[in-house]
Specification:
With 343 residues, the chain is mainly α. The chain has one domain. 73% of the residues lie in helices and 0% in strands. The chain has 14 helices and no strands.
């Protein structure tokens, strides 16, 4: 888990850019957006399009890009039209997040660079906590996000254990057989639904620095940049963070990928309806994969859960490190939050 010398060049260049632009709010706003868009989606690709990429490795990358890119455009456009120019589905309406920043510190502009570096280390970082906490003005905003995210983790973990305890034997029974042709369209539909519900939750992460009501020109810039950034991500087949998906049991099987995506989409939609508070989708995803891995290993290996617990612990540890870094950044950046915490 280390960065090679040639992988340090881009973060160093971006760090210099951050230092140059942070005193100029209009420039810094777009610099943060551009860097946050790619780093957030690259990190969170394991949650939404990771299984889709893994189970469609035999397909042309641009077919996958056009499909997911079109869903992105439709989903964001719906929010922009129906929420008065807001592309976050109202996720930034709570106090402490309801106004775009009018000035920036160096660390705020640097936050997406830190996320990019942790992505290169294959760490499943919570982009919601890292990016939103960097710009929140109230500590209560972060505690609300943390509480809802941990709730999502445990709900996903328990549901995954129940589902895969009941279905692992069935999947093993038909593992050697070729999947029915019906599974492919089902997987594309479930992956598309997951991608759409993820956008509803996590667009807040990249929109936090933008005006809460985007003009037509601003909207076109935002959508175009993310759309073509997705193209790069699909061309790279998910980049390094994709390894977290590939190491899980049987995840490249289209049947397994379909079930994972469908359950995850249902969980994100439930959490969206539950309240407008943003959540860390990373923690929900880790809970889902962790519960699944534990159930599969116990069922397949007659109670041998050590391997699964080790994998669950590793993913949770990495996400926990990201959480600590996020909170350190937040309290380093925001004097108001420090005062609220210690006074």
């Amino acid at each position: 888990m280390s960065l090679k010398k040639n992988e340090l060049i881009a973060p160093l260049i971006l760090s210099v850019i951050c230092w140059i632009v942070y005193p100029y709010p209009d420039v810094a706003m777009w610099a943060v957006f551009f860097m946050a868009s790619y780093s957030a989606i690259a990190n969170d690709s394991i949650q939404t399009i990771g299984t889709f990429i893994a189970s469609n490795s035999d397909k042309k990358w641009y077919y996958l890009w056009i499909y997911m890119g079109s869903i992105f455009i439709i989903t964001v456009t719906y929010s922009w039209i129906n929420y008065g120019g807001d592309i976050s589905y109202g996720r930034l309406a709570s106090k402490g997040l309801n106004e775009a920043p009018s000035s920036f510190s160096f660390l705020q502009v640097f936050a997406p660079v830190a996320l990019l570096m942790m992505t290169r280390l294959k760490m499943p970082v919570s982009t919601s906590i890292l990016l939103l906490s960097a710009f929140a003005t109230k500590a209560s905003s972060i505690t609300s996000i943390l509480s809802k995210s941990l709730y999502g983790y445990f709900i996903a973990f328990v549901i995954a254990i129940i589902v895969w305890t009941l279905t692992t034997h069935l999947f093993e029974k038909y593992k050697s057989s070729k999947p029915s042709r019906l599974w492919l369209p089902l997987q594309w539909v479930s992956s598309g639904a997951l991608w759409s519900t993820w956008i509803m939750q996590d667009m807040a992460n990249v929109a936090v620095v933008l005006p809460r009501s985007l003009s037509s020109d601003q909207f076109i810039v935002v959508v175009s940049f993310i759309f073509f950034g997705l193209g790069l991500l699909f061309y790279l087949r998910g980049d390094k963070i994709q390894q977290i998906v590939l190491e899980k049991s049987d995840i490249i099987d289209v049947r397994a990928a379909t079930v994972v995506d469908f359950i995850y989409a249902c969980l994100l939609y439930y959490l969206k309806v539950l309240s407008s508070i943003p959540i860390s989708t990373t923690w929900v995803f880790i809970g889902l994969l962790g519960g699944r891995e534990l159930a599969i290993n116990v069922r397949k290996n007659k109670g041998n859960y050590k391997k699964a617990l080790k994998m669950v612990g590793k993913d949770t540890l990495f996400a926990g490190i990201g959480l600590i870094v996020s909170l350190i950044l937040a309290f380093s950046i925001n004097e108001n939050m420090r005062n609220q915490l210690f006074n």
